[in-house]
């Protein structure tokens, strides 16, 4: 029996663990993949207080070490169900089941796909969802990035230091990401902006050879590229918990700023809940709030 089980070891989940441990609560973090969440793919974090420049990987490593040092327990198992048993909750994973007085869902989100025919078959053979993971394979080659948010802009900047040419393809004429990054891209000679356009076809033999891009007027252009980096957003990973946490139409947990779900004792924190701003600093904030609320809830059981 744990006091709090946290599903997801990203910035929200690990921050929640820190606050819970500082409140002397026993904590189990369940993580399906690796700790850190999507922040590990960010080459340079510039907008987090105190630390002006730090890589996402280094940030995640420091947060993990801090969480472990405080005594939180980690198990790398995918959670598939939460059973509400009144004053206790049981989290079922692919390997086992664990019981706690409160549960915090901090599962974050996974990469959204383009939905173009042949996309799945070309992952690892020209298509990637992580520029910092795979960018080195495309040194001095031609690549394209699809997307208009912060991740897409950061990916394009990172790849511009490696690749011969970077096409940045976005379906609108303005970017959703930070203007500072957009301006940096406009100043890079090897970055070519392809706006008001979408990728409509992938051409490949054993590997990706080229992509077809269609603009808003219906004109089709073929771009010869060695790699295509997809950064068109994320999909929340909440489907397994819909019975205990209300989801909106997009699949995000309907939890307010106090991170409470419809089920007493179950909370949601981070990018997987309904919110206006999804940034590192707001994920950390959610973690602190969710843990504090969970501690209050446990106290109410006595």
What does this molecule look like?
With about 300 residues, the chain is an alpha/beta fold. It has two domains: about 1-110 and about 235-300, FAD/NAD(P)-binding domain; about 120-230, FAD/NAD(P)-binding domain (3-Layer(bba) Sandwich). It is about 25% helix and about 30% strand. The chain has six helices and 17 strands. It has helices at about 10-20, 55-70, 130-135, 150-160, 180-185, 280-300; strands spanning about 1-5, 25-30, 75, 80-85, 90-95, 95-105, 110, 125-130, 140-145, 165-170, 190-195, 195-205, 210-215, 220-225, 225-230, 235, 265-270. Strands 1, 2, 3, 4, 5, 6 and 17 form a seven-stranded mixed β-sheet that branches. A five-stranded parallel β-sheet has the order 8-15-9-10-11, covered by helices on one side. β9, α4 (about 150-160) and β10 form a beta-alpha-beta unit. α1 runs parallel beside α6. The longest helix is centred in the C-terminal third of the chain and has 21 residues, at about 280-300. The radius of gyration is 21 Å and the shape is elongated.
